[in-house]
Amino acid sequence: MYAEASGLPASRPAIPAKLPVAAVVLWFGALIASSAPWFNELDIGALLSAFWTFDPNNYSSVLAHYSWAPRVSIAILIGCGLGLAGAVTQQILGNPLASPTTLGVEAGGQFGITVATLFAPGLLAFSPDLAAIAGGLLAIGMVIALTWRLGFSPVTVILAGLVITFFLGAMNMAFLLLKGEWLGNLFIWGAGSLVQNNWGPFMELWPRVTLLAILMLLLMRPLQLLQLGQTSASALGARVGLIRALALLLVVLMTATIVSRVGVVAFVGLAAPVLARLLGARTLGNRLLWGTLMGGGLLLLADTLAHWASTWGDGSLVPTGTTTALIGGPVILLALQSFRNTHHMPGQESGPAGFLPRRRSPVLVTGIITALLFITVIVSMGWAPGLDGWNWTAIPQWDQAWVWRGPRLLAAMLAGVALGLAGTLIQRMTGNPMGSPEMLGISGGAALVMVLIVLSGAEVSRPGQLGAATLGAAGALGLLILLARRHRFAGNQLLLGGLALYVFMDAGLRLVMASGGTVASQLLNWMYGSTWLISESEALGLLGFMVLVSGLLLLIVRPLTILPLGDTAASSLGLSVARARLLLLLLAAVLTASATVVIGPLSFVGLIAPHLARVLGQQTVGRQLIVAALVGGLLLAVADYLSRIVVFPNQLPAGLLAALVGGVYFLWGLSRHGPHLTTPE
Amino acid sequence: MSAFFEVSSLDVNIGDTSILRNISIEFRESEVTALLGHNGSGKSTLLKVLARQMSPTAGQVSLLGTSVRTTGARAFARMVGYLPQHPPGTDGLTVRELVALGRYPWRGPLGRYNDEDHGLIDQAIADTGLDHFQHRSVDTLSGGERQRAWIAMLLAQQTRCLLLDEPISALDVKHQVETLRLVHRLAEERELTVIVVLHDVDLAARFCDRLVALETGQLIADGNPRDIMDPRVLETIYGVPMGVMERAPGQWVSYVH
Fold first, then answer.
1. Which of A370, A487, B93, B204 could be disulfide-bonded to A493 (CB atoms 3.0-4.6 Å)?
2. Cβ atoms within 10 A of the Cβ of A405, count?
3. To which CATH superfamily is domain A18-344 assigned?
């Protein structure tokens, strides 16, 4: 009656041998690398005994006991804790890319500590955990609120986590620019440093980590049910909401406890379980066990690398957070290659059916936004604070004011237009309302090149920087295309590639932050979009370029309408899917690069402008493009004006303002208008 | 036969749209019932309410005389098993591991699996004819085998009632018949109460004891196959003129005029 049974496995599939082998190699490699510098001074027995005792007459022995041994112990402890937390997070959300880092929990913890340092130092002295936990809960709460109505789909959750990470990062940065003198050492802490000089922190940390780990393991069986999806899990009698909430709470507690002691150790929680999974850990129990072990080994290795780099790089501190990010990026790329069908992950519910969205007349909407844009231009050119209070510059005198106010305003507006267009292209292409150039890593590619230039110490002129950033964006794009070619440029894979690029950018940034000095502040200014650096010729060049690109956009309106119907439908309608996607990608990249050099990589405009266009009732591609471009221009024009006047005579970077305001709007808007945004995939 | 489920004056609204209106019906123990009706008639919604996946806007559902609202989650799952219309991907679980999850309502988060549990898991796998597949990953099975693996999980759950939402809609004719025959046989052997949403009225008449039809949220027909397989009744259910032939006792063929 049933199918032939030949060639079927007769027994339960065992763990593949490569998994334990890889773990052993990782641990041994890391341990030996870590202890190598000590072999000249101590024999192996003495080195091992450094973990519990020391010889007071031997300086090396004392040093090993109070510096090396606690550092190794804490690296392993934290790595294991984060690996476990990551594996649990991936199970809760049924998402192979979830982790405390990608959900914004670590950024939240850091934000909590920053706020506490500034406003309630007493709390920090009492218990650093509390501030970090509050921040972590805040971050995860925002991510959940954002994705609640979008149905927790894996990619959406990760994107929301990134938005929150960027947003909290921007808040941190705003505090830094306003109260920098208080937060200097927070930077090094924020980049994750495991340097130890006694056993105190380890002794404080291990009982907490162990307790939380045991609690997580107690939840294992209910967590396993989540693999069957919400409906089946609850049909089996599991309280899905309660389990998710409890497990997430434990993850936040674990992460925040760790972050409050050693800072942000990014991506171990992501890389370890992903690695375990790639090497063949299949069941939940296996994934938790091997994820934990991999985490310990990975972090020890990363920490050793950081230690070596600090020693070789004439003593300048290389934080462990940097090296973990350098390891995390490739792991995400590996994952991108292996997880083929990310949109059919377990536990993913189909989103609630959207009702017919409201439509509004495009003429009216564009009219109103254009009018607002004009008002902004006039106010920005004419009405400004001076040394003797606010005054009005009459129109005949504008040719004198132009040099100061014109180019930056024009450039900001054009950058906004470019980001609005690029964002619409990407959201339409990926069918995901959370996609944007920032998320695609194109901005990140441009930023990475800038970071490298700053790190190398070379003096590069402004046009040189422009060229380099464009090269970076194009490089990022090329990499994405290479990676995504197999997947025929499918949306979700692109977004994951972007995530990996963001990780690299992050690593570079942490390094620069930790080194501090003028280099760091110069880079910060650019990162957060300092429009005052723009010259007149650059602004005019950008204008010409934008006019050119807009012409090309006419060609792609119709393909863009068809693409979201899916590859099959699109190609049966006669559209060459791969070629259309390539053209769209190129356009999006060029637009993003030109905007990034002006406003930095972190504004939310590319995310918000297309979203606002939809809320304003523009549902078809062409109308959404036009309105998104106008909205983007308006947003950045206003941000540029405000950045001039808010802390006059000083200036805030316009990109930072846009990110702060945009982030707040986005959090509010998406949780409110969520259902209207789900585009059919 | 006593009433297993008792539904009284049930209303379900989603937003302003009324999905079910004033439904009162009893489902008797160890009886196989098919829910019929065209798309959007509310049959899946009724099943979801019975499975407690949706809560009704008004009205009562009681299970063996007690309101389902007061039953605990796991206690309910020990009595009622529910198979959603589109079971999700299972991410590398083997058939046996999937079936083992059916013991959760009995053992909870921490209880150990004993020999009885393993015996029941073996039994469920044997009953669905999946012995050879038990160490294969569920995701690599064909549609019919995957459906059987999920049904095996419901069997390991040892419930007295199965709620199946269109279990055969994605299968070919052979697997449709096999799956329904399996459900029918299991219901007889284990004295299960089965409520199944079906599209094919001929198969429903062939394998079910009772047919219940809904139309725009209201009950319009309820009876044994002989009552329902009547041209006039079918016409009211599906809204198109239909004819019926009785080919052999208990085997009807319906057709559209």
1. A487
2. 19
3. ABC transporter involved in vitamin B12 uptake, BtuC (1.10.3470.10)
